[in-house]
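Before going further, it is useful to explain how the protein records used in this thesis are read. An example of such a record is reproduced below.

***
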Amino acid sequence: MSSTIGNLFKVSVFGESHGKSIGVTISGVPSGITIDFEELDLLLERRRGLKEISTSRREKDQYKIVSGYFNNKTTGTPLTFIIDNLDVDDSVYDETKDLLRPGHADYTAYLKYQGNQDYRGGGHFSGRITTSLVIAGAIAKQLLKIKGITLASRVKQIYDVKDDEVNSNDIKKIIKDFSLQEFPTVSSLKKEEMIKRIKEARNSLDSLGGIIETYVDINSFVIGDPLFDSVESKLSSYLFSIGGIKGVSFGRGFELASLKGSEANDAYQIIDGKIKTLTNNNGGINGGITSGEPIIFSSVVKPTPSISLKQQTVNMKTLENVSLSIKGRHDPCIAPRALYVINAMTSLALVDLLMEEYGKRFFDGD
């Protein structure tokens, strides 16, 4: 099973949703780094989501560092975190283990692993595993901060409710504003409308999808290569590793199909003695390489597949057509929580890209 990503900054995750523990090992962390555990804990708390619209499964995500950290600094050897699963209820999965849950990886996992996969809560395919990704991403984000690189995301859309447009002239302010919010949006009114839609979906036993938009202040660093090692391909591979992500677009993305070249091109101009673009329709990337402008991209999060409405499915054991109403504790919309996983995976991809471009010791102290 491919549960490792990265070339120089390598991340390996392990565990299952209802197993004893989950965890992550990070290889390539520079030595001598003091981890900001307050920031790490804040990101884990935000990944758990707003209580009023999130799953009732309340894991505390209490982690243990079992290697790679000594005397309050990283040692440079693999850094490993383990998190015990505490709030576990297997009973609902024992009853339906032979029924394929629509929208889940039950059938593909069954085909791949000949029925030997852990079916409880989706096993290794569960969103529970993203806890490990957020921990690794928090470490990466702190490394990026050393070089003045910051990022943040906002909830751009939930179902039919779209947030107001962003004034992207001041990327530092945008990132700061979104970083301060647990459910980041431009408009507080649109945020309340989104939350209302999510509650309505839960009350009707259904679920919703959404779009998360991400902003990176790359601080003028040039990364990426043409063709197969482009920034877009690298970021996309990390983002599509998140369960539930079904689309990624850069800059104005699919909108570009309805524009003319004169509208889509980012014109250049000298501003304060520097070469700048007047627009950023391409999301800060051309030819697979960063231009110095903010990296901007959007990720589509599909509706949570676990819903209580009756759906058609099959019993794998008896090969009968049956109906299924999924029980258990599930989010009516995972997009607001996925936002923090997207930030984490973006941070991991950027650290790996920067190490590839500038060397393994890029994040060492001056």
User: Anything to note?
Assistant: The mean pLDDT is 91.
